[in-house]
C-alpha cells in the first residue's frame, strides 16, 4: 500500500492530508509493499535500485547509505513490534521482535519515503495524525527525528512490559518450578537479545545522523535530536539491566534445580542403603551356613534386620544427610 501525504498551512494551523500523486514537500508512506509497489518506487519516484532492494529486505540491519549519483540517502532503523499470537511460542506471553523501517531522503524532489514491510503502529499514528503534534511533511529531517523518537519511546514501553511479565513469571517459579515457566523465561531472553542488538545498531545510526553529513540538520532539530538520544540510551540501559537480571535469575533457578536433583539422588541412595541391610541379614540365613543363631525361626533375623535399619537410619539422620 502506498499513501502520499502533504502538510499545508490552513490559516494558522498545519493540516496534513492525502494527495493523489507525489509532489514536492510530500511524504510517501509505503506499508506491506508488493511487486507493483516496488516498480512504482523505481519508475515513478526514481529511487535508486539498491535502496529499493535494501528497503525490501526484512533482514536488513540499521545503517545509513548514500548514493552520490542519485543524491539520495537511505536510513534504516530497527523498529520494535509485538509478535502475532499465531507466531508466538506461547500465546499467553507477549513476545517481541524488531523489523527494519526504511527512510529514503530525496532532496532534489523534496520528498521523504518510508518503507515498512509490515503494519507499523508508529507510522500509522503519524499517517493518521492521531497523537502527533507539529508534524510537517515539508520538514523531512524533523519528521524523521519525530518518528525515531516514537520508536525509542516504544522500546522503553515494551521493555517495561517485559519487566512486568518477567516479575510475574518469577513469582510463579518461586512457588513451583515448572518447565513451562522456564520456557517463558527463555522467550523473554530472546526478546531482550533482539532489542539489545537493534538498539545498539540504532544508536550507531543516530550518531552518524547527528554529524549532519547524511542528512541536513537544522538548528531547530538539535533539541529533538537530543531527545532521541536520551530515549534511545535509556532503552539501551534498561535492556542491559533487564538482561543481566534475567541471566542472574536463570542461573539461580538452574542452581536450585541442580540442588533439588542432588537432594533427591541423595535421599534415594540413603533409602537404598538402609533397605540393603535386611537383604544382607536374610542372605546369610538363605545360605548353607551352619551354627547361625535362631536359624529355625524368622523372628531373630527380622529383629536383626530392624535393628540394623534403625542404626543406619539414626546414623544418617545424625550425620545431617537428610537435611
TrEMBL record:
<protein>
    <submittedName>
        <fullName>Mg2+/Co2+ transporter</fullName>
    </submittedName>
</protein>
<dbReference type="InterPro" id="IPR047199">
    <property type="entry name" value="CorA-like"/>
</dbReference>
<dbReference type="InterPro" id="IPR045863">
    <property type="entry name" value="CorA_TM1_TM2"/>
</dbReference>
<keyword id="KW-0812">Transmembrane</keyword>
<dbReference type="GO" id="GO:0016020">
    <property type="term" value="C:membrane"/>
</dbReference>
<dbReference type="InterPro" id="IPR002523">
    <property type="entry name" value="MgTranspt_CorA/ZnTranspt_ZntB"/>
</dbReference>
<keyword id="KW-1133">Transmembrane helix</keyword>
<dbReference type="GO" id="GO:0046873">
    <property type="term" value="F:metal ion transmembrane transporter activity"/>
</dbReference>
<feature type="transmembrane region" description="Helical">
    <location>
        <begin position="267"/>
        <end position="286"/>
    </location>
</feature>
<dbReference type="Pfam" id="PF01544">
    <property type="entry name" value="CorA"/>
</dbReference>
<feature type="transmembrane region" description="Helical">
    <location>
        <begin position="298"/>
        <end position="317"/>
    </location>
</feature>
<keyword id="KW-0472">Membrane</keyword>
<dbReference type="InterPro" id="IPR045861">
    <property type="entry name" value="CorA_cytoplasmic_dom"/>
</dbReference>
<comment type="similarity">
    <text>Belongs to the CorA metal ion transporter (MIT) (TC 1.A.35) family.</text>
</comment>
